Amino acid sequence: MARKHRIPLPALAVASLVLVTLALVLVFFVAPNDADQGFSQRIFYFHVSIAFTSYLCFGAGAWKALRHLWKRDPAADLESYVAVHQGVIFGSLVLLTGSIWAKISWGHWWLWSENQLVLFLVLFLFYAAYFMLRFSVDPGPQRANLSAVYALFGVVLVPVSFMAIRLAQHFIHPVVFTRHGAAFGGWILATYLVAQFAVILLAYTLYRVELAGKLLDLRIRALRLA
Amino acid sequence: MSYLSDVRALARKDLLLELRARDTLPAMLLFVVAVFVVFHFSLPEGSSDVAASGLLWVAIVFTALLALGRAFVPEREQRVLDALVLSPADRSAIWLAKSIATFAFLAAAEVVALPLFALFFHGLSGQAIAGVALADVGICAVGTFVGATAVATRARELLLPLLFLPLAIPLIIGGVGASVVADPGRYLGFLALYDLLFGLLCWAAFEYVVVE
Questions:
Q1: Spatial separation of the C-alpha atoms in residues B185 and B178, rounded to whole Å
Q2: How far is residue A40's CA from residue A23's CA, in Å, rounded to a whole number?
Q3: Does residue A30 form part of some domain?
Q4: How far is A22 from A16, CA to CA, in rounded Å?
């Protein structure tokens, strides 16, 4: 089941630790204060990186789901599930960081005019139902198929919901907040890129850890039955 | 048998079953009237017509959920689904026929519900009715698909709204937009796009849901 030629887990763990630390240092000590929002704007580096990573996880989950349905790749079902699981964890962090940012910038914990937050709420509901679905079917090909099809629905739902929520602005909230006061360049860009890469690597490491644990589980169960 | 005649035979079976047993449609009609009465008392005096238009969409989605929850019950109770999967018919024909039958029930319920809404609350414009028609297609296509998914699980009826509502949110946005703005073109276009995208996806993916 385990694939060869993969980066070993300890190396991944060390690399993500180093990168996340570096990103924290850059975010708190090197990147300049935002002219408009001041210190609190620094949460942007993590909020946006986490959101992007979350999309990547959902995309990876759908890709593995497609591999399962199309190529009947035996490892793909579990990989798809683990990727979606990481996506939901990072998606919850998007809601959390976005909510904190909204409170500090605009004085409310929740703003329906923030497209990104609303979209993540819809996605959170959608993928929470994915787990309900998955754990309501006995393990086997039927569960793998249903989960895979549902994960594929997710990648269609993301752009469709994104469009819909933008359309909804026109009749629900005509005012759109602008997010960036300052130009996007220099240290800001460098810090963002490091933070982005750090979060992606962290997500990949967590994905590999969870996958290794799940595979070990399966092997122990198989040995016990043997 | 060609694909279309399979679909026709399957849809005819569902419609005949409903005509003889009258399980679903009367329940939908009673439900939607009850919901309108609930809405009347939930809207405080002086609420705008726009608020009532929004609530119409809540009524439509929940009435549809009632029909979708019942859609695969006969198949499950009589183990018809196993026989259908064994038959030489293409599996997507099962989805298409069931969607058409559900659409017929929902449209029949709305033929009564929409005039009643106009009587109780306020008149409906042509653009709102166009929005309802387009959204019905998406509701039935996606709803039938997740309905078939839900009956394959242990949780069954419990799971259907959880799977369906997040997928229906774009439809509600498009539908409410088409009913309340002056220029509904892009909302109707969006609904048509949703129908097309999810219709194709359901059609292509259905065979994986009923494999046994």
A1: 8
A2: 16
A3: no
A4: 10
Q: Any idea what DSSP says for residue A75? A: T
Q: Decide if pLDDT at A10 tops 70.
A: yes
Residue A141 inside a domain? The answer is: yes
A117 close to A98: Cβ distance less than 8 angstroms: yes
Structure tokens at B87: 């038959």
Contacts of A133 in chain B (CB under 8 A): 149, 153, 159, 163
Q: What is the ipTM of this complex?
A: 0.88
Separation in Å, CA of B37 to nearest CA in chain A: 26
For B111-127, b where at least 16 C-beta lie within 10 A, e where not — what string? eebbeebeeebeebeeb
**DSSP label at residue B148:** H
* Residue that wins the pLDDT comparison between A194 and A112: A194
Domain total for chain A? 1
- Could you tell me the pTM of the whole model? 0.88
Helices B49-71 and B25-42 meet at what angle, rounded to 10?
Answer: 150
Q: What angle do CA A82, A61, B173 make, to 5 degrees?
A: 120
From the candidates A67, A138, A150, which should be mutated to test the interface with B, based on the most B CB atoms within 10 A?
A: A150
| Residue A97 domain-assigned (yes or no) | yes
Ramachandran region of residue B145, left (φ > 0), alpha (ψ -120 to 50) or beta? Answer: alpha
Does a structural domain hold residue A34?
no
> Across-strand partners of B47?
none
- CA distance readout (Å), B97 to A182, B7, B131, B135: 56, 5, 23, 18
Chain B residues touching residue A167 (CB < 8 angstroms):
173-174, 177, 186-187, 190
